Amino acid sequence: MSIRDIKRRMKSIKNIKQITKAMGLVSATKLQKMRTEFESSRPFFLELEKMAQSIPSKIYSDEKQKHCIILISSTRGLCASYNINVSKFAMDLFHKHNDSSLLVIGRCGCEIINRNKIYIDKFFPGSENNSFSFAKTVADTAISYYKNGYEIYLVYTQFYSAMKFVPAYKKILPLAKINSDFIFEPDADYVMEHFVKNYVSSIILSAMMESSVCEQSSRMMSMNSASDNADQIISELTLKYNRLRQNQITQELTEIISGADALKN
């Protein structure tokens, strides 16, 4: 590799480092915002789950034979092994149960599933801006699958800290069976029909928000690691450049001295 090639490569890597550093800063800002939103809304989702466990249901508490798995992945890449880990977790769960169906949220998860030649029953493009209306669209599909004989499982990434997040799953339908003396007006089936739609939508929205926090954490660490690697490569190239330059100068000096000696003689 010539000096010119080294200089060209160093310039290219410095440009890449500027991009990865900027992306790391953007991900850090998004992470802080998304984490604040998720943690502030988490008590509401937890209370909603408790409420769902305390309400009896004839419609939504029957065990089913088939399984429907909803995978939450990202719409964008450059987030290290985030999508690979959660997709592999969903595929393992898919193969574990017979008569399974797979619904995928996010383009990256869809691409990974397709590469493994697994049929996707329903694909949702997803969005970086998590909204209740989008979660409700997914929930309506999930409820229709439940009514057609499927149990509903949600596969997402659970957040522990900015450095730790792991794939997890949650069974969202059927609801737990309990005995209760609640009195419903006009009747229990009517109340549950409306409550469950909002409950499932909220659980999906919560998982999407938590997965987004994990995605940004993974992307931030990935970009920071890329920037560190760029620094290391630049350091190695600088050392190689200095050695080649030193050799070049030494050779030039040797030629000058040899030429001077030849003129004297």
What does this molecule look like?
The protein has a five-stranded mixed sheet, with helices on both faces. The protein has a domain at 42-220: ATP synthase, F1 complex, gamma subunit (Pyruvate Kinase, Chain: A, domain 1, 3-Layer(aba) Sandwich). The chain starts with a helix and ends with a helix. The radius of gyration is 28 Å and the shape is elongated. The protein is α/β, with parallel strands linked by helices and 265 residues long. Strand 4 (150-161) and strand 5 (164-173) form a beta hairpin. Helix 1 (3-53) runs antiparallel to helix 5, helix 2 (82-96) crosses helix 3 and helix 4 packs across helix 5. The chain is built from five helices and five strands; from the N terminus they run αβαβαβαββα.
SS elements, strand count: 5
Spatial strand order of the main sheet: 3-2-1-4-5
Helix coverage percent of residues? Answer: 55-70%
* Alpha-carbon Rg, integer: 28 Å
Unreliable parts: none
Secondary structure class reads alpha/beta
The first-to-last residue Cα distance is 37 Å
CATH class of the domain at 42-220: Alpha Beta
CATH topology of the domain at 42-220: Pyruvate Kinase, Chain: A, domain 1
Q: Choose one word for the global shape.
A: elongated
Instruction: Tell me the CATH superfamily of the domain at 42-220.
Output: ATP synthase, F1 complex, gamma subunit
Tell me the series of helices and strands, N- to C-terminal.
HEHEHEHEEH
